[in-house]
Amino acid sequence: MIKKRFSIIRSAYSGAAAKEDVAAIIRHHRIQASPGHRAAAHYVLAELQKAGLDAHIETYPANYQTKFWESRSFQEWEATSAALHLIEPEGQARKLADFREEKISLIQRSIPFQGEAEVVLLEDGMEVADYEEVDVAGKIVLSKGAVNRVRELAVERFGAIGILFDGMNLAPPVRQPMDLADARQYTSFWWTGQEKQCFGFVLTPRQGQWLRGLLKKGRARVGVDIQARFYDGEIEVVTAVIPGTSHPEEQTLLVSHLCHPQPSANDNASGDAANLEAARTLKRLIDSGQLPPPKRSIRFLWMPEMTGSFAYLSRHEDEISNMIAGLNLDMVGADQEQTGAVMVLERPPDAAASFTVDLVERLREELFDDVQTYGGLGSYPHFRYTTSVFTGGSDHYIFSDPTVGVPMPMLIQWPDKFYHSTFDTLEKVSPATLNRSGSLAATYAYFIASAGEKETTWLAYEMLARFQARQAQLAQSQITVALAGSSGDLRQLDYQLARFHAGLATLSRLWADAGSVAAAIYDEAAQFTELARARVRSLGSGDPAPPSEPDEWEKQAATMVPKRKYRGPGLGIGGTTALTPQEKDALFQFMKGRAGAYTIGTLAEYWADGKRTALEIIDRIEMETGIRTAELVVRRFELLEQLELITFGG
C-alpha cells in the first residue's frame, strides 16, 4: 500500500528539477508585499499552469488599515538602490554597503534618505540605560542588538535617525561567533503605521569590528543614499489544486513560504521548489494513470510567511472545517555536509494532537533507509533526521492553532550554518535532499487525500505501535528514577494516553466510520499504559513526590479561566503597539533570557478554551515541554487581557 505508492512518487520526483526552480526563485528579492515577491509568485504560477494544474494568484490588501484576524497588514515596499559610504575619517573612506550588490545589506523596509550623519557606538542598545551617557539625536547608531528593540529606543525615544547593525545570530553548534565574519544577516523593520520610521544598513561582523575600533578612537561620519518607497499595494498567495473525486471539498495542504530577501536559497526557495515539484509530480502521475485520482483534493500554497497564512485562512474561513491536515515545507533543501543541518520533523502542538506525525515518521522510514548493510541483509539511513517538539515560528503554528484546527507538522533543516545570511546561496542546496523532502511531502499529501477504511485502519495500528514504544520508554525512565531511590511520576504516562486519545479522534477525518476502530485501539493503549504503570509501581513507589506549596503565581493561575476572543495566534505583527513605552520596557525585561518564552506563551494560547484554568494549562505545558513557569503563563494572559484579546471567566 505505502511502499508501492511511495516508490512510484519517489522515482518520478526530480530533485534536479526542483533545484532549477530554486535557482529561478532566488533571482527575485522576495520581501513580503513587494514587486520581487510578486515576480516570484508569477514564476510559480507559470510553472504550475505549464504543468496543467488549476492554479491562480489570490491578492490581499497591503496597507495599514487591513487586519487578517489579529495580524495587521502593512504597506508594500520597494527599494531600487541604497548605498552607505564611510566619509570620515577621510583616510579610511570606503563603501560599506550597496543594495545593488547585496540586497541584505539594507535593513528591509528602510525609509528613503539622502544625507550625511555621525555614527554613535552602542554595544547592544536594548536597555534604556545604554542611552544615559550618549547623545544619539540626529545620528546613526551602530548596534548588535535586536533591530526592532533598538529602533524603539534609539529612534523612537532618543531621536536617532538610523541604525547600522553588525550582529549575527548564532546557531550552535554549526555557527559560532565570527564563523560568518564576512556575511550579512537578514534584518527587517516591521511597520504598522504608528511608529517613527527610519532607515538602516547591515554590516558584516568583520566590518562591524573594524568600525567599532575606529569609533573607540574618534568620530566617524557616513553618507547615505536610499531610494525606496512605501505605498498601498498587494500581497500575493499562489494556490493550486488537484481536485478530489468523491470528496473534492475536503483538502490536504502542502504549504511553503515564498518570501525572504535575495538569495535565501534554502530559506525558503527550497521549500517552494520542493512544493512545486510535488505538485507537478502528482499531477503527472495521476494524469498518466500511474496513480489513481485521490478522493480528496490536494491544495498547494505559496505565500509570504505567516502573513499569507493569516490572510488566506481569514478569507477562506468557510473551508477550514474541510482542511483535513497539512505539512509545512520550510528550509528543506540544505546540503547537510555544508550546512551542518539535520532534517527535523517538528510536531504540531499537543493541544492539536493528530495522526499526522505518526504518518510522516512511517513514511520517512520508508524513504531514508536507503543504504544496504555490508552483507546485504538490512538497510539504514545515510542522512541525518529526527523528530522534535513543537517550537513554532513558521506557518504551521497558525494552521495548528486549535481555533483553526488544521494539524500541520513542519519539515525543516536545522540548524543551518548559513541561515538568514548572504551566504544562503544556491550551492548550499542539494538535489538529493530536495528529492527526499519533496517526495516525502507528496506521498504524505497523496496518502491523506486517498485514505479510506483500509488506510485508516492501518494508520490506527501504526499509531498504536508507536504510542506503545513511547510509553514503554517513558515507563523505563521512571523505573530508572525509582530504582535510584526517588519517587516515580506517572503523570506523563497519563498525559500521553490522553493526547493519544485526542489524536485517534482525528482519524474520522480520513474515514467517517473510524470510531469503532479508534475505540478498540484506545482500549488496547489504555491497557498497555496500565501495565506500564504497574511495572513502575512494582519497582518503586510509583507515586509522585508530594507537590510543593503553590507559589503566588500558581495561586493566581488557579483563579483564572482564560477565554480567547480571536481566531489564530493573537500576537502577530503589531500585536503590542498599543502598549506604552514603560509597558514595552517591562515586557522586554521580563522576556529576555527566558528559554522557550515565545513558544510557551503560544502554547498557553492554544490551551485556553474558556474551560481550563491557567493552572491546568501550566500543568499541560509542563508535560509538553518539561518547563514549569507559572509567572510567564499568568503574565501572558494578563497581557492578552490588556490588549482586549481574552476575557476571564469563573
How does this structure look, described?
It is a single chain. The chain is an alpha/beta fold and 650 residues long. The chain folds into 4 domains: 2-73 and 234-450, Aminopeptidase (3-Layer(aba) Sandwich); 79-231, Glucose Oxidase, domain 1, CATH 3.50.30.30; 453-539; 552-649, no CATH class. 40% of the residues lie in helices and 19% in strands. It has helices at residues 2-12, 15-25, 35-50, 147-157, 205-217, 265-287, 307-315, 336-339, 356-368, 396-399, 431-450, 453-483, 491-505, 515-539, 552-557, 581-591, 597-607, 614-625, 630-642; strands at residues 54-62, 67-68, 71-72, 76-88, 94-98, 113-121, 140-143, 162-165, 199-202, 221-231, 233-242, 247-257, 296-303, 323-329, 342-346, 371-372, 379-380, 385-388, 410-414, 561-564, 646-649. Strand 2 and strand 3 form a beta hairpin. The longest helix is centred in the C-terminal third of the chain and has 31 residues, at 453-483. It is globular. The two termini are 51 Å apart.
